[in-house]
Amino acid sequence: MATKKKLRSDNTYIISQDTTDNPKLGAKVLSDGRESLFLDYYLGYQKIYNEKLGREVTRKDRKREHLSLYLWQAPRTPIERQQNKDTLELAKKIRFEKGQELLEMTEGYRLKSNRKVNFLDYFRTYIDNYTKKDIRMIQIAFGRFVDFLNETPEYNKYKDMIRPDQITKDMILSFSEYLQSRSVGEGARSLYARFKKVIKHAVEHGVMRINPCSGISIKVDDSQLRKEILSQEEIQLLVSTKRENENPNIRRAFIFCLYCGLRFCDVKELTFADVDYSNKLLRFEQNKTKGHSTKSGVVIPLNDSLLKLIGMPANSNSKDDLIFPLPSYEMCLKSLKRWVKRAGINKNISWHCARHSFAVNILNNGANIKTVSSLLGHSSLQMTEKYMHAIDKLKQDAINSLPELDI
Q1: Which of 20, 316, 346, 397 has its CA 20 to 30 A from that of 10?
Q2: Nearest partner of 365 among 400, 401, 391, 398, judged by Cα
Q3: Proportion of the chain above pLDDT 90, given as a percent
Q4: This prediction's pTM
């Protein structure tokens, strides 16, 4: 069952998570403690005559099919939970097959059978239809999988065509190791999470029988900070370094992130409406946790320098304008790396390093961990503690930089 039920006025909720599903699988909550499963079909539009209006009107043509399958609304025993799992699995298979029949009836074709599907094509189609903001990570995950097939002798024969049933647990284990060889720590885990998302989608839509990723994970020591940190001296060096034809918005946005700890996905969407000029505050919802955490809202105090960096809206009608109109992440990253190199800073700096640098520098200046956690919008102190380990390392490096005593 859906982990979070959004009941509608008729006591029903939709189980299908994919907006492209047609029909959609749903359930009606009954008074006897059960839920009756159904399929909702969208059949386009039809014209009907409206007597009150005295003319034809267009409305959506929908149909509901009850499956005579039932779930326990609140399963209490292992048997009831297993019954729910089996029933829901059967309903999803029926939904997929009915969707195929609808395609054949309306469009004259069916999707290729599982044995003939090229998973690489399926992955590309998934990307083409993907609308969420982490699409860039989905694209990178696809690229990594293609690279893995090309560079691994054992699996090179699949570099152009691989059926879903040819993706085995052994292959996924090798792929997870490959990811860790290409990306450090959180990067590998994040890419693997996106890859698993596509695999799960394939399983739920009948393209794969079993999930080859089950039981295989990439573990990362979350207490360790693996990104490069810009010291306050390096930040000042960066601020004082200018170059011809630089994009001023990229420069302003990165400096703002260094002093406020914002992610790229958040700073690029800031508008003047997010700024409370009279109280010198910035209020915004974090894209990463919006709708998933009660702590997605962040409030950051602003000083005069940051307000100057933000500027003022052109007029009263410009409050919804972007503060930092930025190009794509790739262009921003290229510009940032050229800027860092010109400043003579020999570090591999990405945009996210600004967030880490902000946290480490204010902790180093005496801010307490709860304050830092609030400014970063973390849902728990555990997420912020990794910066304390970075502070300890900086202190150790400072001591180690002293000349040895000749005693």
Answers
A1: 20
A2: 391
A3: 43
A4: 0.54
